[in-house]
Amino acid sequence: MKQQLEEIRLRALAALDEAATPAALEELRVKLLGKKGEITAVLKQMGKLSAEERPIMGQLANSVRADIEEKLEARKLAINAAVLEEKLAAEAVDVTIPGEPVELGHQHPMNQVLEAIKEMFVSMGYTVVDGPEVELAAYNFTRLNIQEGHPSRDRSDTFYFTDDDSILLRTQTSPMQIRTMEKMQPPIRIIAPGRVYRKDEVDATHSPMFHQIEGLVVDEGITMGDLKGALETLMRQLYGEDAVMRFRPHHFPFTEPSCEMDMQCHKCGGTGEVDGQVCSTCHGEGWIELLGAGMVHPEVLSGCGIDPEKYSGFAFGMGLERMAMRQMRINDLRLIFDNDVRFLDQF
Ligand code: PHE
Question: In terms of C-beta density within 10 A (0-12 exposed, 13-18 middle, 19 or more buried), how is residue 319 classed?
Answer without folding.
Answer: buried
